[in-house]
Write a structure and sequence with these properties.
5 helices; about 30% strand; five-stranded mixed sheet; alpha+beta; Nucleoside Triphosphate Pyrophosphohydrolase
């Protein structure tokens, strides 16, 4: 696939979740399908016809076991935030019938959620687990622990939600 063909592919609609506990730390999970220390916040595809908020709450439960009643949505990103997959990642994900990538990357709507539960409410051993481990991380530490091609997204999300994040640390 040429660069021009790759850049002509659409972005996959996706919901991202920044889940913050009472101490002001952010939930991150260590991906099962990636070697090394690939931590990320929960995220997942938005199904055709699905509302982004509904997708975010569905993904929250699918990836963390946390029920929607245990969170409060504090903010939503103003618009879609996009990122491109590295070609080697795109080649592995979401192939069409010809075995070629269907998406050049993802466009994400981000949701800042306040976690109202306790750590025992987290269960990453879900029906289709994505994480092998999880922890709470200070927001400023996120970009250094994320796979390099997603760092820009995380920096944008942190900047957009900065005013809200300061409320958690008071």
């Amino acid at each position: 696939m040429t660069d021009e063909e790759f850049l002509g592919l659409p972005y996959r609609p996706n919901a991202g979740l920044m889940l913050v506990n009472a101490a002001g730390n952010v939930f991150v999970g260590k991906r099962l399908d990636t070697e090394g220390h690939a931590w990320q916040m929960p995220q997942g595809g938005i199904d055709k016809g699905e509302d982004p908020e509904a997708a975010a709450l569905r993904e929250l439960e699918e990836e963390t076991g946390i029920a929607a009643g245990l969170v409060e949505i504090m903010a939503v990103s103003k618009g879609w935030i996009t990122y491109d997959f590295p070609p080697e990642v795109a080649a592995k994900l979401w192939k069409n019938r010809a075995g070629r990538p269907r998406f050049r990357g993802q466009k994400q709507r981000w949701f800042l959620m306040r976690f109202k539960g306790v750590d025992a409410d987290v269960n990453i051993a879900t029906a289709h687990p994505e994480f092998e481990d999880w922890k709470w991380m200070p927001p400023a530490a996120l970009p250094a622990h994320i796979v390099p091609f997603k760092r820009g997204i995380y920096e944008q999300v942190l900047a957009e939600f900065a005013a809200y994040l300061t409320r958690f640390s008071r």
